[in-house]
Amino acid sequence: MTKTRAILRAIFGVHHHHDDVARRRASAGRSVMMRVTLDAQHVTPLRRALTRDCAGQPWTIRIATLPHTERVQLSLYLPKDAVNGAIRQVTRIAPAAQFGHLFEIPDTPTDGWRDLLRATSWAQAASALRPAKPPVKASDDDADTLDRLLSPGNVLLDTDAADRAALFAQIGVFCETHYGVPAGQVIDGLNTREALGSTGLGQGVAVPHSQIAGLLTAVVLYVRPRMPLDFDAPDAKPVSDVIALLVPEGANTMHLNLLADVAQRFCDQHFRERLHACGSASEVCRLFSSAAEPAEIPSLMPHPAARGDASSARLRA
């Protein structure tokens, strides 16, 4: 199984078609993302095969080089009904390829999703442009991850919050008590961001976030409300997993890194299921810090002789 440390990148394009049916097809067609790690020499033949197989359908391939290797990581954005064929093409062209997990992008992303997509796009581009060098010590970027910033004291399980406003009030009081930032300032920051569009991502996940003047360090909170909260999520499901991100004012790189980390983890169904099974703050932190990877595609891969498209039954992110 590949270490899924490379960050996903999603590009939403506009495709012009001649009728409404084709437009609806294009809208739904770019909703599945798949990661593949393979030798760089296989990229061109794979691109040609996918171009042929996905003719007339919108799809995207993004390439990130892996330092000190001759391998690359691909982020493929495909129509759902093209996933099985893409897997067969990869295994035919590059038998040693490693597959990462699949997830679905909402057909109509909320502002919260767009935040994550912008962040992950930036993170992948920054990684590709960063000069390759041996990892001698942890860099500032390495510290901008959920597992390094989330401590048991910042895990709030079974909290009583009647609604989103009550949740933000609790987060504000927590930050004032533990980080010395006025609660009202935190609440205002979260509400200001929320006024731009819901930070609910769907599948019961929300990521309220803001830059806070006077905050000296990044703050990550995992909050599990006792009763799920309405967050105007794209799938209309109430929220049971809240990752609150607060960073110092002007800390744009840190902000983007943390949003990208949220996207990488919470788009994986298996990770969310394991998170829900955690009964204590220490278990939550161990899960975030675990080197074990979320569920990966080998267990989902259809046999080359399999017929039909079973992807829609498996793709739940």
TrEMBL record:
| Stretches the record annotates as Disordered | 298-317
GO molecular function annotations of the record: protein kinase activator activity
> What protein is this chain from?
PTS IIA-like nitrogen-regulatory protein PtsN
Q: What is the lineage of its organism?
A: Bacteria, Pseudomonadati, Pseudomonadota, Betaproteobacteria, Burkholderiales
- Source domain of life: Bacteria
Which segments constitute the PTS EIIA type-2 domain? 148-291
The record's annotation in Pfam families points to: PTS_EIIA_2
